[in-house]
Amino acid sequence: MTNANHATGEHHAQHKIVVTSPVARDVTLTRQYVCQIHSRRHIEVCALEGGYLKDIHVNEGQAVTKGQTMFHILPTIYEAKLDADMAEAQLAQVEFDNTKSLVQQNIVSTQELKLAEAKLAKAVANVKLAQAEMNFANIKAPFDGIVDRLHEQEGSLVEEGVMLTTMSDNSVMWVYFNVPESRYLEYQEAMNAGQNQDALDVQLRLANHKIFDQPGKIGAIEADFDSETGNIAFRADFPNPNGLLRHGQTGTVLINQVAKNAVVIPQRATFEILAKKYAFVIDVDDIVHQREIVIQNEKDDIFLISEGLQPGEKIVLEGILQVRDGEKVEYEYRDPDTVLGNLKYHAE
């Protein structure tokens, strides 16, 4: 090591600086996104016909199974209509049988038989319609799920289409979060490069700051960007076997992705000029060189470098403000693993 002198010959004291090196290592990067939690299926349960709400067979918050009867609307009118239509169908059957017998005896024409057959078919169709309307009186669960708030009480006169309750299928939760365009492009580039989606570690942090015990996976990406925010909505799917998650909750999605063999340096080994990042690199002759670097990602107190530095090169860690481009310096070298293990501060 030697003293550094300016071209004018003016003598300066030696600069004692601390130097380390970039290293290549696997780094886990975590992206955080505020999210909204939704049930996979969340529907309104409505009255298919108007009438008096005679029976409510469920309670708020109750788990129900597919096909289970939830509400019963007074079916008196439906029963009377079904009885009348069944009587008409029986009468039409008798007329059809008599007409068929007369045709066989050549007493009436086949045209009369066709008319009787059509009348019978219409009567049978009316019976099926009345039976369907009778079935509307019993409102059943369309899937396994949880009953939400009841909007009507027993004895209420309800109109056709009025909402009786809502129902949620919470077996799998759909968690929506907005991703900036740059992160979306990173994700698509990784997928197009052959990265398995299962390699992404998708977690959910709840409002109590605890991590949900089931891992998630990216289930869908919306078709369009929001032109006002520049974001696009992602959906992560989380199994919910214990029913902890409910429709309408909020949380934070954490996406952990491993950057393989990333070139890593401490943030405080860099400085900025006109929105560009630089580091001081020391060559084999102990001469300092200012070099522009490109930051790929950052985490805590480290930068992941995509361009400008290679593992094993020497960079100034402490004393950045004391050195100048082209100077020859003496320094103290610190092992990069030790440096990275004791980081506390960001770049100067």
UniProtKB/TrEMBL annotation:
A GO cellular-component term linked to this record: plasma membrane
Molecular-function GO term, any one: transmembrane transporter activity
Domain Multidrug resistance protein MdtA-like alpha-helical hairpin: 78-139
Subcellular location: Cell envelope
Residue intervals of the Multidrug resistance protein MdtA-like beta-barrel domain: 173-256
Major subcellular site: other
GO terms for biological process, alphabetical: response to antibiotic
Residues annotated as domain Multidrug resistance protein MdtA-like C-terminal permuted SH3: 261-320
Family: Belongs to the membrane fusion protein (MFP) (TC 8.A.1) family.
Protein name from the UniProt record: Efflux transporter, RND family, MFP subunit
Record organism: Rhodopirellula baltica SWK14
